[in-house]
Amino acid sequence: MAQLLWSALGLLLLASSVADAATANYTFTVQSMRINQLCNSTDIIAVNGQLPGPTIDVFEGDEVVVDVINASPYNLTIHWHGVLQKLTPWADGPSMVTQCPIQPNSSYTYRFNVTGHEGTLWWHAHSSFLRATVYGPLIIRPRNGTAYPFPAPDQELPVVLGEWWSQNVVDVEKDALMAGQLPSRSDAFTVNGLTGQLYQCANETFTAVVQPNTTVLLRVINAALNTHLFFKVAGHNFTVVAVDACYTANYTTDTLVLAPGNTVDALVYTGATPGSYYMAVEPHHTLSPAATEDTSDGGATATGILLYNGTSATATPAMPAMPNNSDSTTASDFYSGLRGVPAAVPSPVDVNMTVQLGLGQLPCDAAQTNCSVNAFAAAMNGVSFRLPTQMSLLEAQFSGAPGVYTADFPDGVPPNGTAMVEGTKVRSLPYNSTVEVVLQNPTAFPSENHPIHLHGFNFFVLAQGLGTFTPGNTSAYNLVDPVARNTIAVPTGGWAVIRFVANNPGMWFFHCHLDAHVPMGLGMVFAVENGTTADSMLPPPPADLPVC
């Protein structure tokens, strides 16, 4: 069976060649590409003919310039997931939030700085289900003259986990929307674009050659559209050193748990008996009750291989014992076991909000031609979010255009029995205000672990748990070394408390990173107002900003 052999040395040479200067320039050509997977020949949309797409590899403080040429038949945008975009909101990328999409046969140049973060982020399409194949790593190294806050690894290895459909993903989304139903489950999971050996009609396997008795830094990214994932390496433990490009205290585990959008930097010591070891990926199902979720994965596991140098490429790899797909305890232990580095948590709080996440139904829209009576819908605080269609929210904020949105997103949970409503509602935040949000994910029919992603900011995770959060119960808060993140998995029937400083003017999407839930309405937008100085005001749009 064919295998794809990647050496860590090759990865490091690639990394050193792309970003020595203060400005890193890239060209992304987005176009159709035919790929053979699972005995099918499928046309996908990809960047530069690669899956995953090209790695952006830069140093903290660099300027990044990416010319995106849309040679695909679809409107699209690119989001730089986790990049703070301080005073560069026009480069953030979510379609109709910060820009109109890049239309076919058009282009747009994204310009931003990677100041204030180190570690593993990623980039992806932020329009329709194109994110299923339009994605890649974004690695930010300590600037020259500084070092990692942990022993320097001998090798580094990006590991991008994804989902694969054997049909056009745009059609998968369209069919679901037209019927008012959830999309069909993916056909496979992938490791760096490949399914591995354990699926029927298996394809190539991503294989990394490592040296014995060395330390490997795995940069693991969950790029899956709609699935939480478990990740293990047979015979090896991980030492987690960062999540979402935010350093953590060292945390040892044999299982990584990643919600869609999450990244984990983890050290692996290659001290096992030289051999061949599977890197295994399986879904973590969180929908409750389970009877409402299609869990027919057929027992398939996506795999890559960690191959010790000198071991035959045909050696049978060892397989790790994977958690049960519904093992919420392993997931909870992972998330609750993480600690950040000691930090000054912002205080006092200026804005307090409680945001309830909910799945439900709304009457079928006239455009949903295959929908019967009611369609699946989602809401935050009873508001099912709808994107504008004629002008992006950021353009409306900058120009003061009326009628594009309303600034009346509610700060609290509506009374029981309140009907879900549709709207383009934002929450205005004064510049430099400290914001605390309680995310409540009630046990309902159905309920699901929602990975909530905040654009433009990192936030501190002060506390999380099961049940209903008790207002004012700050005794459970970690105000010493909370984890910082940009995407938080809010447990089924549980809650999380986050805090951030709104020091970046613009329109910042706050939404579920299960892509199926975004068009259903599970999102809202923070409208951060201008400050009083030139370096705290929204800059004008670039000249090449796409038009609707």
CATH names the topology of the largest domain as Immunoglobulin-like
**Proportion of β residues?**
35-45%
CATH architecture annotation of the largest domain: Sandwich
Report on the biggest sheet: 6 strands, mixed
Overall geometry: globular
CATH class group of the largest domain: Mainly Beta
- The averaged pLDDT comes out at 91
List keywords for this structure.
globular, 548 residues, 33 strands, 4 helices, Immunoglobulin-like, 3 domains, disordered N terminus, mainly beta, 6-stranded mixed beta sheet
Architecture blueprint of SSEs:
Blueprint: E1 3-7, H1 8-18, E2 23-37, E3 40-47, E4 56-59, E5 63-70, E6 78-81, E7 106-113, E8 119-125, E9 135-141, E10 155-164, H2 169-179, E11 188-191, E12 205-210, E13 215-222, E14 228-233, E15 238-243, E16 246-253, E17 256-258, E18 263-269, E19 276-284, E20 302-308, H3 328-337, E21 351-363, E22 374-380, E23 383-385, H4 393-399, E24 421-423, E25 426-429, E26 433-441, E27 450-454, E28 459-466, E29 483-485, E30 487-490, E31 494-502, E32 506-512, E33 523-528
Parallel strand pairs: 1-12, 2-5, 4-9, 10-13, 12-20, 21-26, 23-24, 25-33
Antiparallel strand pairs: 2-3, 5-7, 6-8, 8-9, 10-11, 13-18, 14-17, 14-19, 15-16, 15-18, 19-20, 21-22, 26-31, 27-30, 27-32, 28-29, 28-31, 32-33
Account of the protein in words:
Its EC number is 1.10.3.2. It catalyses: 4 hydroquinone + O2 = 4 benzosemiquinone + 2 H2O. The chain has 548 residues and is mainly β. It folds into 3 domains: 23-141, Immunoglobulin-like, CATH 2.60.40; 155-337, Cupredoxins -  blue copper proteins (Immunoglobulin-like); 351-536, Immunoglobulin-like (Sandwich), CATH 2.60.40. The chain has helices at 8-18, 169-179, 328-337, 393-399; strands at residues 3-7, 23-37, 40-47, 56-59, 63-70, 78-81, 106-113, 119-125, 135-141, 155-164, 188-191, 205-210, 215-222, 228-233, 238-243, 246-253, 256-258, 263-269, 276-284, 302-308, 351-363, 374-380, 383-385, 421-423, 426-429, 433-441, 450-454, 459-466, 483-485, 487-490, 494-502, 506-512, 523-528.
